[in-house]
Amino acid sequence: MTTDDQRWQRLNALLAQVLEQPAAHREAWIDEQCGEDKALAAELRELLDYDAEETGDLSDVIVRASTRITDPMIGRIVGSYRVTGKIAEGGMGVVYAGDREGADFEQRVAIKVMHSHKLDDVARARFIAERQILANLNHPNIAKLIDGGVTNDGLPFFVMEYIEGENIADYCSNNALTNAQILKLVMTVCDALQYAHNQLVIHRDIKPSNILIDASGAPRLLDFGIAKLLPTDGSADQQTRPEWRALTPLYASPEQIGNQPISTAAVVYGIGLLLYRLLTGRLPYSPTSDHPRDLENAILSAPAELPSSAVTSADNAQWSSKQRKALRGDLDTILLKALRKEPDRRYATIDAFRDDIKRYLARLPIGARRDTIAYRMSRFVARNSVAVGLTTVFIIAAISLTAFYTARLNTERDVAEQTAEFLTGLFEDSNPYRRSRDELTVAELVSTGAETVSEDTSLPAVVRARLLRTIGVVLNNVSQSDKAEPLLEEAIAIHQTINVPGDHINALHALATVRQSQGRYTDGIAIINEALEVADAAFGRPSKEVGALLCSAAYLNYRNSDYEKMYEQAETTRVMYEALFDENDLRLNCPYGTLGTYYQITGNARLSMEFDKRTLRIKEANFGPDDFRLSNTLQNIGIDHIDLGDYEAAIANLSRAVEIRDVATDGTDRQLPQTMYSLAHALGKIGRFTEAHAMFLRLIDLHTERTGEVHDVVAYWRYGHGDLLANLGATDEADVAFSQATAIYTEINKPEGHFDRSVTLVGHGKVSRDRGDLDAAESQMRAGLMIREKTIGVENTFTQLARVDLADVLRRRGKLDEARSEFEQALSVMRSTGDGEHPTAAQALTGLAQVELAESSFSEAIQMLERAIEMTAESIGVDHLDNVDRRLLLADVFEQMGDSTQAELLRVENKPARDDIMARWNSALDGT
Predict the structure, then answer these.
(1) 689 near 921, Cβ under 8 Å?
(2) pLDDT tens sequence across 365-417
(3) Is residue 725 within 8 Å of 737, Cβ to Cβ?
(4) What are the pLDDT digits (tens) for 476-531?
(5) Angle between helices 797-812 and 816-832 in degrees, nearest 10
(6) Which of 364, 383, 402 marks a domain boundary?
(7) Same-domain pairing of 338 and 425
């Protein structure tokens, strides 16, 4: 009987011999040598024809193949997971499919286990390094690490999320993606790679099998097994040492093949190579034979074939002809730059490569070629093919405009000099009867300047208008909007008599900002629309002037609750700005920030987080990590975390934002109260009630000092404070806060169907509920819920919070079936949006438990309460008042079941904790 060892010795010998045969004779040679042993022939062919995209050398393939017949890992428990099958093998380990074992929920995972024959110190260290790399990466397009450890027989392993999908090459082919779709897909991969680079990680194995496209069409980057950490000090030009030659030959860069130091340029090469294959159907080299040495020589020395020349398809000649034409020019240039043999001649970063793809798609000049006038004109023609028919008119106009703009530049210089001279004079203490400059406040200084402008009749109209606008902007910035308003209106009146479009637009824009500061959003929108007419006529689209106005209009529409218009204008600005500016240009912050706000208020906190993090990246790139200008974005990211129920992360970002603002401006920053509001809200959510209460009082005072009591922002913050008071049983104080907010909304004519009206309705509903007026409570809750469904949508977490409050009132009224329906609907919606673990979902589950308790379904009530506590243990803490109350409710369940001992135990453990929380809260309340 032949043993496995004997069989594999024979297979190794046959493999060595067949490799010596000419490729054309190998099939016949295998049949002759293996005879009737068809299994042996199949195994030999499998080894011979192993996937060229596998990582590692042939000896690894032999060892892997020997385990395919009977794999002892199948069926074993690894950590908390049972291995169910094999997915793939690589040079370092085997990837298995697995399912979570013994849990009350299903979870499909991928488990990577180190090869037993690789248990040397170097390989083990590399495997563990891959696990650590994955642990540090958190990106939507990178497979996430879930767990890790060591098997019972000492093999390191880690557990990743299971990605169901096709590799990127098959996906593009099977779905017949267009060039534009392929390019956008690769741009998303670039985002993931650049993120990894920002975390000092180089992925050195970019190939189709390491990029899967999931069910949503999103690419997911896998396999960091031969990734490398960059030195944190940026030494050696961010290069890694060639200490370990791990690579996939067909997708390796010249420096990997040549065993040279590896930098991020190797990844640029890898992604360029991948895109080359996706667009042409092949790789750029034609080695003289199948021998690995010839392939290496081709990569090291043979020039990459021009992509437009490489496209061939015997099956589809029409496609080949069309594709060659599409690739010719810019795409040829982009790909060949990425595939340069010399690393320093490639794109400097993945972002730079991605930027050229984006510019190509926008039909803008790419950075990879010399920026000649002829080339820029060709891009203009591509974007404006109809208009190019008027070439003669343009030439004549250009000759005329040359003289005009020469004179215009001289005028601009004179205006700038006169404006600067006037403003400088404001700071010179030339009048002996005027107070010392040091004693003047900014507001007094610019007010003095306004008086001087009015008195000085010698100033040219354009200078007068520009000065009035500048002074008006400053006054508005120091909370003197009433004084700013007439100055800006005067500047606009001047511009209606002179033709200076840029200044006219700026003055209108400044007045719209004043209306925003005053809470007069409809008026502000009307002024912006007037400015847009001027900008469209003077500059057209796309232009930075139109973009700036559209983005301001988007914010005003947000404050006016027209979210559809808000999105339309912000998205138009984003597309316009991404075509006009570099990706780190600060002007992109306006559309990105506004879109982040849009997704936040419409319930998509994850997309909101994506845009807010883009904004933070741009600011950090321009200002550094600790600049004051980062604070607003940190606040937005904090709000995203609140909406996702991650309150600790929210508090970390918001505290940093408050500290930056407070320190930088000595507490005088106008945005400080807004940041404090978000922080107070988060503090209240995790049970730090006393801090939250004190912060609400401070921020309301700060804002009221600057705007007065009658302002919609003050009203909203009074509601937020009232909600904290109501949730802690301070019913009378909460009623006062809600009534103050309602009175402000009435005085400023806030529409009855406005979202802000919903918050006071729900607030008054809580007061009515706590006072026992359940009829009024139900009516108020239903009205608030209806407004939220119409304004921010059914899927928004804030909408579901109102639904849970309504369901609680229905439960108290004894309408158990209706209450159950509303609680279940809230849970269903939140689970469908990925918020099934959110604290609001736990509130719904707690309400359902109370319904079950009312119907004596004790075991169901216990399961729901225990699940609600488990769900919120991390987000709000096990000792939060909500969870203390849930455990006390559990005591009631056990009491009704007849288990008085367990009930008493729970009460003894939790009643003192509740009493302590409420004592501290009441003490803080009494102190105010």
Answers:
(1) yes
(2) 787 754 443 444 445 445 544 444 444 333 333 333 333 333 333 444 444 44
(3) yes
(4) 776 777 788 888 888 888 888 888 888 888 889 889 888 888 888 888 899 999 98
(5) 160
(6) 383
(7) no
Cis-peptide into 912, omega within 30 deg = no
Q: Is 361 exposed, middle or buried (0-12, 13-18, 19+ CB in 10 A)?
A: middle
Q: How many residues does the chain have?
A: 928
Residue 339 CA to residue 336 CA, distance in Å, equals 5
- Number of domains comprising the chain: 4
CA torsion angle 280 285 291 293 (round to 10): -140
The CATH number of whichever domain residue 829 belongs to comes to: 1.25.40.10
Contacts of 684 (CB under 8 A, 6+ apart): 692, 724, 727
Alpha helix (H) residue ranges in 587-688: 589-601, 605-623, 631-643, 647-665, 672-685
First to last CA, the chain: 91
Each as own residue / partner, the long-range contacts of residues 356-362 (CB below 8 Å, 24 or more positions apart, any chain) are: 357/183, 357/186, 357/187, 357/190, 358/187, 358/578, 358/583, 359/579, 360/183, 360/330, 360/331, 360/334, 361/180, 361/183, 361/184, 362/578, 362/579
Given 383, 413, 435, the domain boundary residue is: 383
- Residue 534: domain span: 386-540
Using DSSP, state whether 201 is helix, strand or coil: strand
**Residues sharing a CB contact under 8 Å with residue 53, sequence separation 6 or more, in sequence order:** 207, 208, 209, 248, 250, 251
Round to whole Å and give the CA distance between 191 and 188: 5
For the chain, residues with pLDDT lower than 50 are 1-5, 50-69, 225-227, 229-246, 370-378, 380-381, 384-440
